[in-house]
Amino acid sequence: MGGRPGYLTLPIFSVVAAIGYVYYTTVFVAVPRWLGLSTAAGVANAAAFTALAAACLATYAVAVRRDPGRVPPGFVPDVEDAESTVHEIKRKGGDLRYCQKCCHYKPPRAHHCRVCKRCVLKMDHHCIWINNCVGHENYKIFLVFVLYAVVASFYALILIVGSVLHSVPKDEQPGSDSSRTSIIICGVILSPLALALAVLLGWHIYLILQNKTTIEYHEGVRAMWLAEKGGDLYHHPYDLGVYENLISVLGPNIFCWLCPVLNTVGNGLRYRTSYDIPVSTPPKKIAAHSQ
Predict the structure, then answer these.
(1) Which of 34, 94, 144, 201 is the most exposed place for a label (fewest CB within 10 A)?
(2) How the protein sits in the membrane (predicted)?
(3) Rounded distance, CA 44 to CA 203, Å?
(4) Integer Cα distance of 217 and 271 in angstroms
(5) Based on the number of CB atoms within 10 Å of its own CB, is 29 exposed (0-12), middle (13-18) or buried (19 or more)?
(6) Are 72 and 78 spatial neighbours (Cβ–Cβ below 8 Å)?
């Protein structure tokens, strides 16, 4: 059951507990069994994994607490603005998108979240594991957290497998059975977790390369089907090309793409589209989200 955005919930507690358990088992059980904490290799791996775990916790905390982006209460789309050549409309009626629950217009790519009970800028989805929406202001942090979590999970798996395959000394301490049990439990937790996180990361990389949100992907499937049915070709209006798509999500500085810094492009109320041209033209309306 979800709570108010930013509040601690059972899923959040579960994530923190899992990170803590994996960290303890990897650094204080797996590394000593395989490399030993008194060796240079053991210390180096323990330090590297500690830094990675700290990065995971830090980015996770920001993803939980960071507001995904609220629609200003007085927002009204300027249909006469020549710089904004695309205005999203409702599927039915052709009117500009208006949220009856929040009582204001919705900018392009914004959606109303039934869990958070508010409109979120460039909403991707609501994530129960952070008890927050993933939107314009926290999408990059969410993505970087998933990246760090994937690297940490596979790193931990390598250390755990190495400790299992390592020939344990004959004078092993009596507590070896409990340590072996901890490693087995950790491996059982990590194996499906690493796979799930890798799939999630791959999915969002695919979306970023096309400059789509999860919601836009599912809506695009339907739009593509309708376009093909009518003999037309569907083109996602926010697809600017691979490099420009990456910049729009990860920021203009390529050296900060994988860093947990907030360098979001724009204010979330207007986005560049493939229809943008330097010559002033009347604004277009495209069939868009019904939420």
Answers:
(1) 94
(2) Multi-pass membrane protein
(3) 32
(4) 17
(5) buried
(6) no
- Is residue 210 within 8 Å of residue 236, measured between CB atoms? yes
Domain ranges of the chain: 10-287
CB neighbour class for 181 (10 Å; exposed up to 12, middle 13-18, buried from 19): exposed
In angstroms, the CA 92 to CA 64 distance is 35
Express each pLDDT in 205-215 by its tens digit: 999 999 999 99
Q: Which of 113, 119, 127, 133 is labelled catalytic? A: 127
Whole-structure pTM value: 0.85
Quick one: tokens of 12? 């959040």
Q: What are phi and psi of 119, to 5 degrees?
A: -90, 135
Tokens for 272, please give them. Answer: 């560049």
Is the CB of residue 46 less than 8 Å from the CB of residue 30? no
- Which residues, including other chains, have CB under 8 Å from residue 16's CB and lie 6 or more apart? 57, 60
β-pair type (86-89, 284-287)? parallel
Phi and psi based region of residue 211 (left: phi greater than 0; alpha: psi -120 to 50; beta: remaining): left
Which stretches within 88-241 are classed as H helix? 139-165, 176-209, 214-229
d(CA 205, CA 199): 10
Three-state SS across 164-179?
HHCCCCCCCCCCHHHH
Total residue length of the chain: 291
The residue whose two tokens read 């109303």 is: 112
Q: What percent of the chain has pLDDT over 70?
A: 79
What average pLDDT does the structure give for the chain?
83
What is the pLDDT averaged over residues 154-174?
76
- Alpha-carbon span 49 to 280, nearest angstrom: 54
Cα separation, 219 vs 39, whole angstroms:
55
> Is 102 a residue of the active site?
no
